[in-house]
Amino acid sequence: MFPTVNEQMDLIKRGVSEIIPEDDLVRKIERSIKSNKPLRVKLGCDPSRPDLHLGHSVVLRKLRQFQDLGHQAILIIGDFTGMIGDPSGKSKTRPSLTLEETRRNGQSYFEQATRILSTTNIRMQYNSEWLGKMSFADVIVLAGKYTVARMLERDDFTERYKAGESIGIHEFLYPLAQAMDSVAIEADIELGGTDQKFNLLVGRDIQREYGLEPQVILTMPILVGTDGAEKMSKSLDNYIGISDPPKEMYGKTLRIPDELIYPYFELTTDVSHKELAEVKQQLSDRSVNPRDLKRKLARTLVTMYHNAEAARKAEEEFDRIFVQKDVPVEMEVFPLQIQNGGTALISLLTEAQLVSSRSEARRLIDQGGVSIDGEKVTDANAPLPTKKEFILKVGKRKFLKVVRP
Question: Measuring CA to CA, how many Å separate 215 from each of 40, 179, 358?
C-alpha cells in the first residue's frame, strides 16, 4: 500500500528546489497507486568522488524518502561516463578516469550511500552495461537528436566559449550519455543537485526522442560548507564526512555559521516539520543562543550516522576540550626517536605532520597556537621536554601525545 498522493507530495517537496513539471509528478504518483507499481527513481553517481559528505547526503536523503514511500531507487554508477568527466559547473575540461578507477570508486560510493539508503528496494547498475555496447553509428544517431546551440545554452559552456577556453567535443556527449541512462532504465523520476538541471532536462528530451514518457526531475539545493561561503567540498576542507568519527562530526558541525543552522536541519536530518518550525522560531528569538541549536544539530547528525551513545560521548569530549579546556581521552601517539632527543619544536611539528611546512609551524608558534602540557610555547627553536611523555596541542583541535622510548 502506497501513501496517498498528498502524503507523498508533502514529503517529496520538503527541501526541493524545483520539480519539473510538478503536475506530471502528481499524475505519475496517482498512476503508481492505482496500478500498485512503484516508480523508478534514478540518481546518477559520480565515481570521481567516492568519499561522501553531507553535501552528497542531501540528494541521497531525498532518494531514501522515495524508498520509504515504496518506490524503487536506482543508483547509476557512471563508470562509462566517468571516462568522459562531467564538466558541470567546471571552468575547464575535467580529467577523465580509467574504467577500473570508476568501478573501484563506484563500489566505495555504494557502500557509503547505503548508510543512508535502504538496501531492500534498491538497484545499482553501471552505465557501461548499455553505453559500452553502443556502436559509433548509434552515437551519431544520438548526437543528431540535440543541437550545438542548445548545448551552448548551458551556463558553464557559454562562459567558457565566450572566454575563448577550449571545450572538447566529448564534453557535449556527457549530458547525452547521461540521458541514455534514463532511456535504458526507463526512469520515471531523476534526482540531482541544482547544478545538474541542464543534464536532467536533456534526459527528458532524449527519452521523448526514443518514444518514452519523459522523466520528472527534482533538483536539490547545493549545501554550503562549514565555512559558510563555498559549496561543501573535501578539497576546500569545509566538509562533514558521513564516515567521520563521532567527535569530528560533532566538532565540525559546531563550526557552521548561524545562518546555516536551519538549512542543515532541513536538508541533512529527518526532524519533523513541527521541529523545523520550532528551530525557525528559536532562531528568531534573541533569548535563544544559536550555539544550543548547533549542539542539537550535532547530536542529531552523530546519532543518525553512529548512535545516541556516540553522540553523548562526542558532546562530553567536546565540552571537556573546549569548555573545560581539558585534553581528549583518546589521541594519536607519536613515538619520539632517541636520536631526536634534542629536536626543536618546529621540527617535531613537521615530522608529526601537524603542519604542512616549517614556515606554517613557525607562524603558529609565533601566534601562540602551540602549547606543551597546557603551556604556550613562543620559541620555535625551543628544545623539547626531557620527560617520558607530554601533550602537544596545535591550534584548537589537534592533540598529540609524544612519547619517548
Answer: 9, 10, 55
Rounded Cα gap, residues 308 and 92, in angstroms: 44
CA distance 47 to 401: 37
The top-level CATH class assigned to 5-220 is alpha beta
Nearest Cα residue to 226 out of 260, 263, 193: 260
Q: φ, ψ for residue 18 (rounded to 5)?
A: -145, 150
pLDDT digits 0-9 by tens, 36-69: 999 999 999 877 776 899 999 999 999 999 999 9
The answer to whether the beta carbons of residues 12 and 66 sit under 8 Å apart is yes
pTM: 0.75
Given a contact cutoff of 8 angstroms between Cβ atoms, the answer to whether 201 and 182 are in contact is no
Domain spans of the chain, in order of start:
5-220, 246-323, 332-403
Q: Which residues contact 351 (CB under 8 A, 6 or more apart)?
A: 340, 343
Instruction: Dig out the grid coordinates for 324 from the structure.
Output: 573545560
Nearest alpha carbon to residue 157 among 84, 85, 87: 87
d(CA 180, CA 207): 8
CA atoms within 13 A on the CB side of 255: 18
Q: DSSP class of residue 296?
A: H
Domains 5-220 and 246-323 share a fold: no
- The CATH class of 332-403 is alpha beta
Please choose, from the candidates 282, 315, 318, the residue with its C-alpha nearest in 3D space to the C-alpha of residue 301: 315
Q: What is the pLDDT of residues 182-233, one digit of tens each?
A: 999 999 999 999 989 999 999 999 999 999 999 999 999 999 999 898 999 8
Closest to 235 measured CA to CA, from 201, 227, 243:
227
Kindly report the CATH number that applies to the domain delimited by 246-323: 1.10.240.10
Q: Are 87 and 174 in contact (CB under 8 A)?
A: yes
C-alpha cell at 4: 496517498
